[in-house]
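User: quick one - fold this with calcium ion bound?
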Amino acid sequence: MPRLLIILFMFLLVLNGKAQKRCGTVEYMQMQRKLGKIRQTDEQFEQWFTTQGRNLLRQQQARQQAGPYRIPVVVHVIHNGEPLGTGTNISDEQILSQIDVINKDFNRLNADAISTPPEFAAVAGSMNVEFVLALRDPFGLPTTGIVRVNGGRTSWSVSQENEFKALSYWPAEDYLNIWVLNLSGGFIGYAQFPVSDLPGLEEYQDGLATTDGVVIDYKAFGSVDYGSFDLDPSYNKGRTLTHELGHFFGLRHIWGDQLCGTDYVDDTPEQRNETIGCPTHPSATTCTTTLNKMFQNYLDYTDDACMNLFTAGQVVRMQLILDNPAVPRRNSLLSSPGLLPPNCSEPDVAILDKVMPGPVTCNQNPMLRMKLRSLTCDPINTLKVQYRVNNATPVTANFTGLNIPPGSVAELNFGSLNLITGLNTLEASVLEINGIADYNPANSTYQSRILIDLASDRIPLREKFDEMTWPVITPTEGSQWQLSGTNFNTSASFRAFEAPDGPNESWLVTPVLDFSNTSRASVFFDLSYAWNGTDNDRLRVLVSTDCGDTYQNLSPPFDRTGLALANAISVTAWRPESESQWQLRQYINLNNYTGSEQVRLAFVFTNRQGNNIYVDNVEFFLSDDPDPLFLADGPFAVYWETLTEAKVTFNLDERSDVFIEILDFTGRRVAAADFKDVLNQTYSITTGTAAEGLYIFRAHIRGKRYAIKFFLTR
Ligand code: ZN
Ligand code: CA
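Assistant: Sure. Structure tokens for the protein plus calcium ion:
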């Protein structure tokens, strides 16, 4: 083989061996910027940071006296169903080795600190920090700080991060989230860089909470110094996490991500670009400086075995980020409840919600069913809950033989309630858990109002809200749906702009509707809402087929929030003045609920004191046509469907019985029909084989006679 080819071949081999790129943080932050999640540039951040940093330098000295920083860590292992300790479902030992590595590296207790060349050892820094696997979870319950989730995939890319981070996430204000998985796309890790609290960016910072933390490939997590873990030979000493945590605390790559760029740290030498592999010291930076390359720095791309220091300047920079309460989700970690041991002598249950009955029902004796969450360290076997209706004598429900695991949600049946027509109050509270008093009554004292409304109606139906005849209720205290003036005379409205309180929920509910005589049904309504730019009010449309005992989401759900709910943006009280300020004829197919005699639809508004919402012209059809004929004027329209069939579409003001007839020009009747409960339906009329010529269509509606002449051609 010619010599040139051999060299080329070896070069390719080396490339393949280095297919994994150490860090995707810079690319990740560029992606976040492209998505509009981050609006500040690196330069803006650094300018802000320099100012803040100076202000904090003095506090820094005081902070150092107070002992080490303690950072609560949660490791989310996103595996693919492998047995514990195999494949992506890495062992506890491998995770513990990684935690030990960062605790050593950040405090310069790493065994290879002696390998730092003397010229750099002089500027090496120790952060005085302790990374602690969380002692209590977000519910206050005991945890190992390790969560294992079967993600059902062999690998994940950076662009799928919303998906895998949602599989397991603890609030980033209180926990340093570390996700470990099989990361595809060539990177072995990336971090979310801190952001500033520059005015106007708050919303974007909040949007970054659910992705905040560090992602590490499972083959670069842990250290072979602690056991024979299956790790990438270049990245087998846990330095990937050390590097990424550097980014998490605000460090940039030592070469500044451009040729001889800056990392904004004074004691790291300028460097032309990243270092690959494991060079020999000294090697020149090939920038203007006479210093040697500090390829041993954790913020370079060197192999794990050849990195061994942060500089004192880097440590100060990380400490300034951590000390600054204005940097979201960094300083708050230091006072996280996750650092405290759980208090298991204080059993606690929270009442989350009432599952049954719904806020408006026709059933005066509904089953009470409630949803609770155990915040107790041991499984719950017995539970004593008190409840009462309308200030009557309390009833105590004693549940025995339960097995509710710590942290989990349970639904319990309490027996049937005795309710009166009209408004009822329900109160409930948890008394005892496993025979011990509930330690925290605040989260298990429940109050709600239930409206027994027996009104019924049938479809087709049109509600124009000239007056409020539909039941309206706010289950807790607070504002509710009312009538407000619009270009449609009056409309149903929730005035969130003026609401003095919130968040609360208000329900606007139809009467009980009979869907039993049709196999097709649909509803249209007009909707108008303006988003104020910050407060995310929400509208859901729910359905019940048991007259209101239970309500479900539609399929697909109608659930809109904030901008997605809006047809305008306004920071003043919203009121539609013309049809163009409405989202006209929102369509919902209701075929799934036909056959049922007790259908209810609920417009559920969650008030976050944003802006006003309006609903009007709610119209039920006995068809599922998403594009029905709306007549511009006149009560009906006629057209020929086939040679022997005419169609008539009605649009009446109210449900009426209608008699129709078709006459030829001699006055002879060729067809006639009687229709009951006509509102907005379309009917077929068989005409027989009528001859070409002039015909008259007559309709008798509420004592009035209407006629249309038409010419039939063949
Ligand atoms: Zn990096
Ligand atoms: Ca409680």
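One thing worth noting: The pocket of calcium ion (ligand 2) is lined by residues 348-350, 430, 438, 440-441, 443-444 (CB under 6 Å).
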